[in-house]
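Preliminary data (for renewal application), tryptophanyl-5'AMP complex.
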Amino acid sequence: MIDNKKVLFSGMQATGNLTLGNYLGALKNWVSLSDEYECFYSVVDMHSITIRQDPATLRKRARALLTLYIAAGLDPEKNCIYYQSHVSGHAELSWILSCFTYMGELNRMTQFKDKAAKHADNINAGLFTYPVLMAADILLYQADVVPVGIDQMQHLELTRDIAQRFNGIYGDVFTIPEAYIGKVGAKIMSLQDPSKKMSKSDENPNGSIYLMDDPDTIRRKCKRAVTDSLGEFRYSDEQPGLHNLIDIYCSCTGKTPDEVVSEFSGSGYGQFKEAVGEAVVSILDPLQKRVAELEKDKSYIDSVIKNNAEKANYYAQKTLRKVQKKVGFPEKIR
Ligand code: TYM
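Predicted structure:
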């Protein structure tokens, strides 16, 4: 609790081009929850280097992501929007927690297996211990709630296990966080292969809508989205392509799947795909314009970076000092 408010933590990697999945699965919910909680939204650049990055590109993308958080509607006066690498407590807590995490637990992580398969030439120790750093991110701020897409659930379960193990030994040190998964949009699938999640690292650019795609590209990608040959307008797991487009449409318009089915049941897929394209454009176009506006104001963004890093450090240090004491590190002489 901070000032009688529950705490929310979430983060996103500044790796690759963000997709509509990142927006609908995470960022959009962050905005809707931000009044209710004391929020920490991190650009998790330390996680990004588990995969080799070009330094200048990473720096640029990290800043663009931080700007996007603000453009999406997160007020940096009320929400702590900051770079993970500006708060050394993440790394320090991560080390401590890694001594309370079992190899067997990390070995079970499906994202590690996926990423190791994709980057077979660079299976580094950071990639393996990535979920511990993620646990540190969350526990450092004593977060009550963590809004994420479904793909992060396994990491969140591990975070809870680590926190409970630590609390079991040392008393109530950490708040046990709950995941917050949105009702729609928690798993947006590829437009070209609806059995795979929409991903920044998809080799087929037509599978993903990138947040910075221009309107014509968005419309074209929606038009080309894979559906099926059944020709029936239903919201059914047997029609995964259509199911995904309905999810996207609902998430962008606030309508329910039932409403969408009755709205489009008389029309062909083509007409619906056009409507999906327009719905996505109507969300992303204003977002892109706000990003462009904000990018012009360099000193404003700089001040957000500086002030919020200080705020994040303040809360991080509070937890860290408590944890260090519990595990037996000697007190600093001041
Ligand atoms: P990342 O950067 O891969 O994704 C950021 C957020 O977007 C969600 N997401 C999706 N949601 C729906 N459909 C999709 N296709 C889709 N793709 C991505 C993710 O679930 C996530 O919520 N490890 C995290 C970042 C992280 C973090 C944290 C998150 C680091 N520390 C602490 C929460 C709390 C990651 O790589 O997310």
